[in-house]
Specification:
Spore Coat Polysaccharide Biosynthesis Protein SpsA, Chain A; 17% strand; 2 domains; globular; alpha/beta; five-stranded mixed β-sheet
Length: 304
């Protein structure tokens, strides 16, 4: 039996049909399945997942555990269950595109001796290549707020075991781990498209602006205070988050009222922790303008 190179660590809670598609996207790949394992850490209150797994009884290396871990801390339990050299966190709604697991195994083999942190951006940078960094600050600058994306995160088993005493942010436990790796000699961004995110109804369930505009930026601010990232990096990510995340989600939730269940309590209060009142009102204006342009586009398309 080959040594397990990759653990695909999936924290899950329901969404059985969505999860089935994700599992199918993994097990349909033409690879040596003795080199990977699929970890399922299930904190749901039902027994649907064990019933689903009966359909995959011929697949080796599926590891299932029922857990009482709450919220995003289920991610840490999923990582803890992994036995592979590289532990890759994976959202249950993220499918693998055809023939991409083989690419992931190749990059693991390439870097398994040096063991640099590897972040899978799924083409977010639009550079379609592997980028290597000798500097943690440059690595985090490049990732920007995408460093919070759980499906992009991976960690070598040896590094995970060395971080047993970490105090996790409950909303960003995986990002806590990523930020703890500030003393490595090399960092890798794998900017090649690997995934497809399925549409999930009623996504949310937590306070979006407190989580990102306060807690996430506080983590970055602490990194700056501890001299792990530069002021330039902190300010760049704060601005990028404002322009391309917070404003977009304000438009989606408060104006377009899309199918999300995020808590928007004390939104303005959250924004004023790291942003000015002027920027808060500018965000509202830009969001309404985005919604207006979106409606105009829809109207024009209907008239064609």
């Amino acid at each position: 039996m080959s040594k397990i190179l990759l653990s695909i660590c999936i924290p899950t809670n329901g969404r059985i049909d969505i999860l089935r598609n994700t599992l199918d996207s993994i097990f349909s790949q033409e690879i040596d399945f003795t080199e990977i394992e699929v970890i399922l850490s299930d904190n749901s209150k039902t027994d649907e997942l064990p019933l689903l797994l009966r359909q995959y009884s011929n697949i080796p290396n599926i590891v299932y555990e029922k857990t009482v871990e709450l919220g995003f801390m289920n991610s840490i339990n999923a990582l803890r269950m992994g036995n592979g050299e590289l532990l890759k966190l994976h959202n249950n709604y993220t499918e693998f595109k055809s023939d991409t697991l083989g690419l992931m195994l190749e990059v693991i083999r390439k870097f398994k001796t040096e063991k640099p942190p590897i972040f899978f951006t799924d083409g977010f940078l639009k550079e379609s290549k592997i980028k290597e960094f000798r500097n943690f600050d440059e690595f985090i600058f490049t990732l920007s707020y995408f460093s919070s994306w759980s499906t992009g995160f991976s960690i070598w088993k040896s590094d995970f075991q060395n971080g047993n005493k970490i105090e996790y942010n409950q909303m960003f436990p995986h990002t806590t781990l990523l930020f703890s790796l500030h003393s490595k000699k090399k960092y890798v961004v794998y900017d090649i498209v690997l995934f497809h995110n399925q549409t999930v109804k009623n996504k949310g369930g937590y306070n979006l602006f407190d989580t990102f505009a306060v807690q996430y930026l506080k983590m970055l601010d602490d990194m700056f205070v501890d001299n792990h990232i530069s002021k330039e990096t902190f300010e760049f990510i704060k601005t990028d988050l404002y322009n391309n995340f917070l404003t977009v989600w304000y438009c989606n939730i408060k104006i377009l009222k899309n199918d999300y269940t995020f808590d928007m309590t004390d939104l303005k209060k959250s924004m004023l922790v790291y942003y000015s009142a002027l920027l808060y009102y500018k965000m509202v204006f830009i969001a309404y303008f985005r919604a207006f342009k979106n409606q105009v586009k829809i109207t024009l398309n209907l008239r064609r």
